[in-house]
């Protein structure tokens, strides 16, 4: 991989190439989110802050990636807790590795058209994706009970797969759901808009 020229900033929660300039790394502590715990991943901090900033009120951010992270931000722009669980790819790999007779599946998988598929691989995909969507929908309902104007934001690589299922579970018009596939990257760009050239 080539070193990018003019890199204004970068953030990561996992291993990174040694050539990335440390002086341009954005850490969680730099994200202007109130009550930010030191242990919170920069991806969750960026996504929560940017969703809150765009909404102007309380938000729940469902980041559907390697893990499904649910991050709440209060109306005042403060971290308000969250939940974590294995994402779709991790769950599918765990099913294949941890059980006898089940295949090892990789994403992307499509949501089967049938609600109750008879083929094993399709049943696995349906179960994992519907289970994650149910977790997001339930968390959204609970967040709205605590903050009536809370908006749900869905981001991450599996966000588009989960969006229609979450909307179906929440019902039409009950809660606004915003899909923002690049939420953390948009936040990073807002924090580090570029280098003066």
Description:
With 197 residues, the chain is an alpha/beta fold. It has a single domain, classed as Nucleotidyltransferase, domain 5 (2-Layer Sandwich), CATH 3.30.420. The chain is built from 5 helices and 5 strands. It has helices at 42-55, 88-98, 120-146, 159-170, 183-191; strands at residues 59-64, 67-73, 79-86, 151-155, 177-179. It has a 5-stranded mixed beta sheet with strand order 3-2-1-4-5, sandwiched between helices. Strand 4, helix 4 (159-170) and strand 5 form a beta-alpha-beta unit. Helix 1 (42-55) crosses helix 5 (183-191), helix 2 (88-98) crosses helix 3 and helix 3 packs across helix 4 (159-170). The longest helix has 27 residues, at 120-146. It is globular, with a radius of gyration of 18 Å. The mean pLDDT is 88.
Question: In a few lines, what is going on in this structure?
Answer:
By secondary structure, this protein is α/β, with parallel strands linked by helices.
Number of domains: 1
- How many angstroms separate the termini? 24 Å
Helix/strand class? alpha/beta
CATH homologous superfamily grouping? ATPase, nucleotide binding domain
Helices and strands, in order, run as HEEEHHEHEH
List keywords for this structure.
single chain; 197 residues; alpha/beta; 5 helices; 37% helix; globular
How are the SSEs placed, and which strands pair?
Blueprint: H1 42-55, E1 59-64, E2 67-73, E3 79-86, H2 88-98, H3 120-146, E4 151-155, H4 159-170, E5 177-179, H5 183-191
Helix pairs in contact: 1-5, 2-3, 3-4
